[in-house]
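Bumping with the actual sequence this time:
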Amino acid sequence: QVQLVESGGGLVQAGGSLRLSCAASEDILRMCNMAWYRQPLGKQRELVAAETTGGYTKYADDVKGRFTIARANANNASFLQMNFLSPEDTAVYYCRADDCSRRLRGRSYWGQGTQVTVFS
């Protein structure tokens, strides 16, 4: 079972920045997709950003131009750089990895989440 551990969340003033990290316990080269989701209090979990092994990225419309996802395959990690944060970005942020290895294709792994709170 792959373990994902997020870090880097916290309390930040509107307009500020945070960098979230997701550390994987195993080789992420077999993960065809690394993604970040968030879940505001009382709302559904939603996709924020995703990146494939080949470097293709996609973002939710409301974070385009502000957030950047990046994989560090050598370090088995994914990062989410968040700039120009607003109170609407307040949520628990989760890392997800989609396994594309021959044996475990179709399996997804989730981290425990890290809280991001943006105050005005």
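The tokens above came from a reply further down the thread. The chain has no helices and eleven strands.
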